[in-house]
Amino acid sequence: MNTDDLEEMAGLIHFRAGAWQDLGYENPPTPESATIPPLGERSANAIKAGHEAVKDIDQLIARLHQVRAQLVSELRQDSDIRAVRVDAMLAERRAAVACPDHRPVHDSELGWYCAACGSDAPPDA
Known about the structure:
By secondary structure, this protein is mainly alpha-helical. It has helices spanning about 5-20, 45-95, and strands at about 105, 110-115. Helices cover about 55% and strands about 5% of the residues. It is rod-shaped and about 90 Å long. The two termini are about 55 Å apart.
C-alpha cells in the first residue's frame, strides 16, 4: 500500500485553499501582509483555485476510501491467519499436556469442555 500520494494531495489542497483566500491572512501578522478579500471580491485565480481544491478534495476522499478498504481487508486477513496459528498452538498444548483430572462436560452450544484443563476434547472412551 503506497500512501505517499495522500500527503502530496493534502499539500496541494492546502495550497489551493490558500490561493482561494487570495493568499491573504484572516489576521495579518504584519501591516504589509494581505488580508483575505471578502466573498464576491476575490480574483479569478482565487475562484479557479477554489474549484480545483474541491476537485482535489473529492479525489483525496476517493483515495482515502481505497486505503481504508485495503486496510480493513488486510486486518481481517491478518486476524484470520493469527487465529489459525493460535488454534494450532492451543491444539499442540492440549495434546502435549495430559490433564490428570480430565472430566469434560458437554454443553449444547459450546460442545465438550473440561474446566480443569480447558480442553475441548471429549471424554476418553
